[in-house]
Write a structure and sequence with these properties.
- The structure is a homodimer.
- The first copy, chain A, is of the alpha/beta class.
- Chain A folds into three domains: 133 residues, Rossmann fold; 161 residues, 3-Layer(aba) Sandwich (Rossmann fold); 174 residues, Succinyl-CoA synthetase domains (Rossmann fold), CATH 3.40.50.261.
- Chain A is built from 17 helices and 20 strands.
- In chain A, the strands form four sheets. Chain A has a seven-stranded mixed β-sheet. Chain A has a six-stranded mixed β-sheet with strand order 16-17-15-18-19-20, sandwiched between helices.
- In chain A, helix 3 runs parallel beside helix 4 and helix 14 runs antiparallel to helix 15.
- The two termini of chain A are 29 Å apart.
- The interface between A and B is large, with 103 and 103 residues.
């Protein structure tokens, strides 16, 4: 079997960039900066018809002038110039490309013809390419980022293959704030050559990837998709957001990537047959895929809920039932053990509500440990992670009149978050958290997320992600 | 008609705090600090059986010793001590109280009896009170915040009445990051005296409040609720999150506020009869109420979508149709006018996708203005607000080798966001935005939110909030 073309595109040793210049506010220049300033460990060559250097790097006039047949060419030139560049690549023996330029079949009949011309040139020279009309790829484990926004977060284990470049790159600030990292991110664009089937096939074998997210406006090769997705979803969970199933979605998709989208009914059938989870929105797409990439599956529907907040306890319990999860009342034995850790004004039945109090160790460590080890639940949802941010805010309010033990709290929270992590590891049961603070405010949330324990913005997001971990047949 | 008891509770001229001490990590102390450091313009008196001063303020041993019959007493003492404090209030002629202390009917039969005793004392002395088992109130327009977390954000026009104190106070960091401010926030607790009906009645007449959010675990006075909610929802939109309709939700509510919750069917009927929008989760509750408090209603279902991102354009279009909103193709005339502002690789049909480019004025001002003035749409959804954060990130990546015009971008974005605001004001049509950056990263998002233009985390949240603005019968 021949090598998947994405293997070299995501792991190149050298890259030529067509379209970067001294003008800093152009796409090609952003991308060049992201590649060479972002720590890409290989050679980077700007190609520019007139300049000797671009952004401080020696530039070459044409592909033919490059000192090596690079592993990857990144093309961000005017639409009409793309066929010429592709021909140059072929003559230089360059076999992999990403065509960022748009203006092809997503625009009109002329664009469609031009795209066919590009495909023909590629076939003639044996070039495999992503796009056109895409944003490139991210492999933070290399690192490589050919896209527009910088990748600041840690490498992760969630892969994305997307018909939208925005969901690959512009979403990075959103993901970063939530502690979600990619293993790989692939912008598919118009899929003139490499498509989502190629991407699934590549990601199935990629060791850094533990779950796959798909943003789909269309599936172009139906039977190949069915066959490949069915195989891959047995190895790794796949979550898909499909947005082409309505009249307006379908029309927008046609303008966007030249897609001829199909009805929701057909796509629901495809997802059901292939074991793909269908996400209702972008938030769920990332939440679920992140959760599936970091947490074990829930072997059953029995959930423990632990919190210091009665409202979120009830929101979580209600959402569990709505998502097909149970919140069983604990055995009298377990309740008796928990009663030593829960104040008289709280509840130890499940949901466990310790109410307001300062016994953070009970809330985040002792109770989770006891509950996870009890054998009475298949997963744990915990709301209200954090504490340091609150003390810091109160310190700010008190304006020096009162001092809160901010540093002590920080140390202590860091300590007990490791306890929560260990408890979840010993039990091999999924743990998902929520909190109204985020990692930028409360370092313990960053710590938990970096340990692979998801912490979402709202209680219901935690339940919805836990329900994804409960999908039937998941290991 | 007698004065609504919440009027003085939300607008007191003087407050006595029972339960604050020199110990800084107790609820009563947090609350005292929030009141007197938070800028409350009236007198604040700690009441403490043993101390002469508490947190730097002169303390009084009993209510009887207070120099004035304060407008409001805040009670955070051990459960068993509450009846005695209430008797003291009565003897001092104090008529309004908030009982923070828990341990009443939400716990057991003893607690229920104790709560009845408190109610009896209150009736005897004519005291009206919130709680017990609540967290207090916030009126940022005074300002007054008797709750646990500090209120840092601007005063807003969205009121909350809630059976959960968490959704009043612990949620503040969440709301702040999203530019959402309260007009009033009221923690109802066990509703032994003042309940959600009293709250609706008060909020209906409150001039700072333009929309009302309810977090409900139960409705205790069914027929009064029906009558009042029906009247109030004609004046101001009401959004409710009800979490008692499932087995687990109902059981959790009983432990939380001693509520006997009812089935979803009954509550759906109540909401339908009263014109209350039912929110599916906490995120929607705040999103919708915020939107309804700041934006005009959509007179029809026709939405314009404007963005520089094809993926979000399609997500938005798809979500619109799923929420009963249309995305009509613009007239040829309007398309022709837009074509001057949209590059050839983009689309001007609706969704308008200007694709990647630097013409921010076209994207955020000229196109919205033309579309809103066209008469062809009833509302506008715009994804991708921002720009400064991107340049700042790239500057960081470039490590001094390249300089991006961060300050120029900031000024420019601030300028055009005022243009977007003016366009929406002239057209009197709702505008809702989404972006993957937030106000902490991109000041233009803060500016828009502070001008009352919501900017949500994801495209689908913007559509869901816009759909709430489209509710039938809304002015």
């Amino acid at each position: 079997m021949s090598e998947n073309p994405l293997l070299r595109i995501l792991h190149p040793r050298s890259i030529a960039v067509f379209g970067a210049s001294e003008k800093i506010t152009t796409m090609g220049t952003y991308q060049l900066i992201n590649i060479f300033q972002g720590g890409f460990p290989g050679n980077v060559y700007p190609v520019h018809p007139k300049k000797d250097t671009v952004q401080g790097l020696k530039a070459y006039a044409r592909a033919q002038d490059l000192p090596e047949a690079v592993d990857l060419a990144l093309i961000t030139v005017p639409t009409r110039a793309v066929p010429g560049v592709m021909r140059d690549l072929g003559e230089r023996g360059i076999k992999r490309a990403i065509i960022i330029s748009g203006g092809f079949k997503e625009i009109n009949e002329d664009g469609r013809r031009l795209e066919m011309e590009v495909v023909e040139i590629a076939r003639r020279f044996g070039i495999r390419f992503l796009g056109p009309n895409c944003i490139g790829v991210i492999n933070p484990h290399l690192p490589l980022n050919t896209a527009m926004y910088h990748y600041f977060q840690r490498p992760g284990h969630m892969a994305l293959a997307s018909h939208s470049g925005t969901y690959v790159t512009q979403v990075l600030p959103y993901l970063q704030k939530r502690g979600m990292g990619y293993s790989r991110s692939i912008s598919l664009g118009n899929e003139a050559d490499i498509d989502v089937v190629t991407a699934l096939d590549y990601l199935a074998d990629d060791d850094d990837t533990r779950a796959i997210a798909l943003y789909l406006e269309v599936i172009r090769r139906g039977s190949e998709f069915l066959r490949t997705a069915r195989r891959v979803s047995r190895i790794k969970p796949i979550v898909a957001l499909y947005v082409g199933g309505t009249e307006a979605g379908s029309r927008s998709a046609a303008s966007h990537t030249g897609a001829m989208a199909g009805s929701d009914e057909i796509y629901n059938g495809v997802f059901a047959q292939t074991g793909i989870l269908r996400a209702p929105d972008v938030q769920s797409l990332y939440n679920w895929a992140f959760c599936l990439s970091e947490q074990p599956g829930a072997p059953g529907p029995r959930m423990a809920i632990i919190t210091h907040s009665g409202g979120p306890a009830t929101s979580l319990a209600d959402a569990c039932n709505r998502h097909g999860l149970d919140v069983p009342e604990f055995s009298q034995d377990l309740q008796n053990r928990l009663k030593e850790l829960v104040p008289a004004t709280g509840s130890s039945r499940n949901p466990v509500d310790v109410t307001f109090g300062v016994n953070m160790k009970a809330l985040f460590w002792d109770i989770p440990e006891a509950v996870l080890a009890s054998g009475e639940v298949d997963g744990l949802i915990l709301h209200g992670v954090g504490g340091e941010a609150y003390f810091r805010d109160m310190e700010r309010v008190a304006k020096g009149k009162v001092h809160f033990p901010v540093d002590k709290m920080a140390q202590f929270m860091s300590h007990i978050c490791k306890g929560l992590y260990q408890a979840s590891q010993s039990a091999r049961k999924p743990v998902v958290c929520s909190a109204f603070s985020d990692r930028t405010e409360d370092p313990v949330i960053a710590e938990l997320q970096d340990l692979g324990i998801p912490c979402f913005d709202t209680p219901e997001q935690a339940v919805s992600a836990m329900a994804a971990l409960r999908r039937p047949g998941r290991k």
